Inverse folding.
């Protein structure tokens, strides 16, 4: 073996880098193993907390994955108390959906630009059996701090919580709807509103199947 | 003597060789993560952790790493520690993870880390390299928190999330990207001015 101070053969360089990469891989595998359960648990806890926030009472839940083939699956969670439906939560994102996905969810074609300013906004929207929105919880929001992040304030969310889904036009006022937009954060407001609208449409399409009163 | 050494090093990292205000490296995270003081602290601590670990390992292996492939070797070491920190923050500090988002993975390309590996750790024994990593990280954090606090106070009227401003007028510009450039520019100018008048 040649000393590293004299001619460094290419083989030596390759060996060193391989050793570095192998050691790195080993360490990463170790840390990943150590943290993956905890990371999964954090996500589950967050969702549980969100669910408890928007559905007042339930003792059993059953979840159904919508768009299971997608990288960003939506989820429909039916909450029951004493056997009857006490609320429905829909977990979804502001991502634009393909025509196929829209058809699958029996949603009308969506031509509006409803993407968020940063990464997709992820929401969990809760509905009561009498077709009102019981609450909205923001699971992920990467909007501009101080502007777009205001969508995750009780004040803004009160635009949605408690509203009868049939009584409102789920568009921001700028687009002719009933929902206030946040000054200097119209894109975020629009993304939030259209995502809630999407949840409303999914809920409406499913409400009959769940035997919810009209 | 030990204490003197640490004090001297700390002074070097925070004041005379501050990575942001004097060396002016790592501007991307400086501008992007200083929207408020809390994010700045989080970013600073992550950088201290990565910088200290990467300096230690690179210094330890400085005689094994051939000169020709030193940069890829450094990058492997740095990227590994960044990923470790990223996973740990995701697992144990989820709110911080959400706030910092993409900027934790981007510590990999933070010039300060590679800069210290190349300029210091590759040429010095382990202990001084660890100290260098810590003091440079502390200097980075101090600068970030200063900018973050100024921007948060001016942009939202709060400090570490607590409302302290007597006004509710939100100077939104300071929370946005231009505010970062303006604040950094003014702070840099102020520091240069102070240094020049002190030198006279």
């Amino acid at each position: 073996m040649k000393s590293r101070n004299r001619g460094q053969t290419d083989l030596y360089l390759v060996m060193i880098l391989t050793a570095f990469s192998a050691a790195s891989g080993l360490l990463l595998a170790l840390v990943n193993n150590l943290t993956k359960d905890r990371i999964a648990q954090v996500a589950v806890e967050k969702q549980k907390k969100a669910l408890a926030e928007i559905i007042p009472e339930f003792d059993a839940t059953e979840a159904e994955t919508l768009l299971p083939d997608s990288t960003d699956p939506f989820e429909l969670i039916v909450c029951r108390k004493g056997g009857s439906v006490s609320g429905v939560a829909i977990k979804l994102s502001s991502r634009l959906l393909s025509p196929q996905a829209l058809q699958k969810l029996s949603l009308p074609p969506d031509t509006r630009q409803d993407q968020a300013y940063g990464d997709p906004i992820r929401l969990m929207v809760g509905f009561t059996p009498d077709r009102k929105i019981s609450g909205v919880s923001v699971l992920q929001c990467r909007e501009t701090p101080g502007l777009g992040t205001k969508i995750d304030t009780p004040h803004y969310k009160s635009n949605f919580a408690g509203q009868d889904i049939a009584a409102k036009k789920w568009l921001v006022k700028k687009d002719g709807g009933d929902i206030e937009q946040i000054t200097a954060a119209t894109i975020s407001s629009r993304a939030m509103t259209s995502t809630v609208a999407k949840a409303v449409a999914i809920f409406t399409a499913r409400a009959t199947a769940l035997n919810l009163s009209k | 003597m030990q204490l003197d050494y640490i004090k001297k090093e700390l002074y070097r990292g925070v004041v005379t060789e501050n990575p942001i205000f004097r060396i002016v490296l790592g501007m991307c995270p400086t501008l992007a993560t200083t929207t408020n003081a809390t994010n700045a602290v989080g970013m600073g601590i992550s950088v201290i952790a990565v910088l200290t670990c990467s300096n230690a390992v690179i210094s330890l292996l400085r005689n094994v790493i051939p000169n020709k492939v030193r940069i890829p070797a450094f990058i492997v070491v740095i990227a590994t520690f960044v990923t470790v920190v990223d996973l740990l923050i995701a697992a144990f500090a989820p709110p911080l993870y959400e706030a910092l988002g993409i900027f934790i993975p981007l510590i990999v390309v933070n010039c300060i880390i590679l800069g210290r590996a190349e300029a210091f750790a590759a040429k010095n024994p382990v202990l001084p390299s660890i100290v260098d990593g810590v003091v440079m990280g502390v200097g980075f954090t101090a600068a970030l928190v200063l900018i973050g606090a100024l921007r948060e106070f001016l942009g939202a009227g709060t400090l570490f999330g607590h409302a302290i401003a007597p006004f509710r007028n939100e100077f939104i510009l300071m929370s946005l990207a231009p505010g970062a450039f303006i604040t950094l520019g003014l702070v840099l100018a102020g520091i240069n001015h102070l240094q020049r008048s002190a030198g006279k």
Chain B has a mean pLDDT of 87.
